[in-house]
Design a protein that fits this description.
The chain is of the alpha+beta class and 111 residues long. The protein contains 5 helices and 3 strands. The radius of gyration is 20 Å and the shape is elongated.
């Protein structure tokens, strides 16, 4: 995924409240805005603004169910983040493997 597509996801998750909202949605599956707002010392309007940012970044989606707005995480957004992070995970894993070999060789020159 291009860096420009990942930036809004990371920017949205950089806020602790929005990160916590996504974590709650991951744990609960779907949740109403009112239930999402409960554990926070924020107004429903403030929570709604945070949810709007998450929606605009593509991390969550919402639907109306009678008089409630229900939110859920978009799995494809998390997949895109995982794919992007996977590039760095592979790089660092390989780097640590190489470092481990160098350190072993420096401890035991016969290796």
């Amino acid at each position: 995924m291009p860096r420009s597509s990942i930036h809004p996801l990371l920017a949205a998750l950089a806020d602790p409240v929005r990160f916590a909202l996504v974590e709650r949605l991951l744990a609960q599956g779907e949740e109403t805005v009112g239930n999402l707002a409960r554990p926070f010392d924020l107004s429903t309007a403030a929570i709604s603004r945070h949810l709007k940012t998450l929606r605009e970044a593509g991390l969550i989606e919402s639907r109306v169910d009678r008089q409630w707005r229900v939110c859920r995480v978009r799995p494809e957004a998390l997949k895109a983040l995982d794919d992007w992070l996977g590039q760095y995970r592979d790089f660092w894993s390989g780097s640590f493997d190489r470092l481990e070999r160098v350190l072993r060789e420096s401890e035991d020159p016969d290796v």
